[in-house]
Each structure stands twice: as structure tokens, then as C-alpha cells.
Amino acid sequence: MNTSFNLQHFWSQGDTFNHFTVIVLLLMSILSWGVIFMRLSMFMRLRDLGQGLAVFWHNKDSDTRMSALKPFDKENLLMPIAQLATQSVDAPTLERKLSHAVRVANQHLDKGLTLLATVASSATFVGLLGTVWGIYRTLTTVAAQGQMEIANIIGPVGEALIMTAFGLAVALPALFAYNFFSRNNQTHQTELDAFAHDILNNQTQHTHIQ
């Protein structure tokens, strides 16, 4: 009950700028958690990517390879690259197509990370801005009343510091999630690059043999 009362009091005592910063932080939190849950779902679907690559190279027939790979490629990252292995084109053309397919796959892997990075780097400062503004309003109000006593200042200043805590509460989950998913992305991007490189080498060797 006390927490609810304090939050209501904090909101009722705030001005338009305070309300704006709270709404911005709230939107940042909602968006970042939405991305976090989306990325967690993607993370679970990408766990079999390495196994899919092993299955692909284990099969020699191109049609069998594609059908065997598909169940493991739930995000459709490998299939566009694998399909290029069946095309009869010269090496430079194949290399360009593989580079494009890998670039598209990497863009898909990076989905949502820019937002997480933005929230992680800016939410704390938004909260700090709200705190500074709240302290400024408190000091000017107390000075205007002519009652510059610590008892009249400490309560409103403490409420203003809530904005800093709010900013940290928004920024830290986004920061941890960004670091985790970025490291995970590096592993998958390395796998994609190696897969495209192996396909290019395989097709080049096959052309030379012919």
C-alpha cells in the first residue's frame, strides 16, 4: 500500500516534463522486453543450426540435402544459401549471390539488436535527466517558499531519485540481453560465412573437375 501511495504521490507532484520522461522510459521498457522475448524465441529456434549443417554435408544428393536441412533451419537462414549450391553459374556470380544471401541472413540475425543497444545506452541518461529536473524543481520551490531546511528537501529529492532507478531498471536488462544475443550472433554468423565459403569451394572444385 505504501509503495502504491508513494508512486501516486510522485506522479501527482510531477510536472509535464516528469510525466514525459516516465512515459519515454516506460515505452523503452515495453519495446526492449518485446525484443528480448522475440530474440529468446529466435535463440531457441537457432539451436539446431549447427546440426543442420552437419546433416547437409552428410548427404551427397542435392535434393536429399535440402529436405534434410529444412527441419533444422527454422529461421530460414541456411536454405537460401544451400539452394545456391544447385545453380550452374560461374564462380564470381556464385560468390556474389552467396555474399548477398549471407548478408540477408546476418540482417535477420541482427533484428532488434539496434533497439536494445539504444535503450541500454540512453535509458540511464533519460532517468538521470528526470532526476536532475526533479531536484531543480524541488530547490526552486523550496527557495520560493523561504523554507530552505533539509527536512523540506530530502523527501522531494528522494522521489526525484526514483527516475534514476527507473532508468537503470530499463537499461540493465537491455544491456545484458544485447551482450548475450550479440555473442550468440557471432557464432551463427561465423557458421553462415563458413557454409557459404564451403559451398563456393565445392562448386569451384566441381567445375574444375568437369
TrEMBL record:
Domain MotA/TolQ/ExbB proton channel: 85-192
The organism's place on the tree of life at top rank: Bacteria
Record-linked Pfam families: MotA_ExbB
Coiled coil segments of this chain: none
One GO cellular component term noted in the UniProt record for this chain: plasma membrane
Membrane spanning stretches: 20-40, 113-136, 160-181
Topology versus the membrane: Multi-pass membrane protein
UniProt KW keywords: Cell inner membrane, Cell membrane, Membrane, Protein transport, Transmembrane, Transmembrane helix, Transport
InterPro entries: ExbB/TolQ_transport (IPR050790), MotA_ExbB_proton_chnl (IPR002898)
GO annotation (BP), single: protein import
Principal subcellular localisation of the protein: membrane
Compartments, as annotated in UniProt: Cell inner membrane; Membrane
Keyword Membrane: yes
Family: Belongs to the exbB/tolQ family.
Chain's role: Involved in the TonB-dependent energy-dependent transport of various receptor-bound substrates. Protects ExbD from proteolytic degradation and functionally stabilizes TonB.
Subunit structure as annotated in this protein's UniProt entry: The accessory proteins ExbB and ExbD seem to form a complex with TonB.
Protein name, entry field: Biopolymer transport protein ExbB
Organism of this sequence: Ephemeroptericola cinctiostellae
Higher taxonomy: Bacteria, Pseudomonadati, Pseudomonadota, Betaproteobacteria, Burkholderiales
Name of the encoding gene: exbB_2
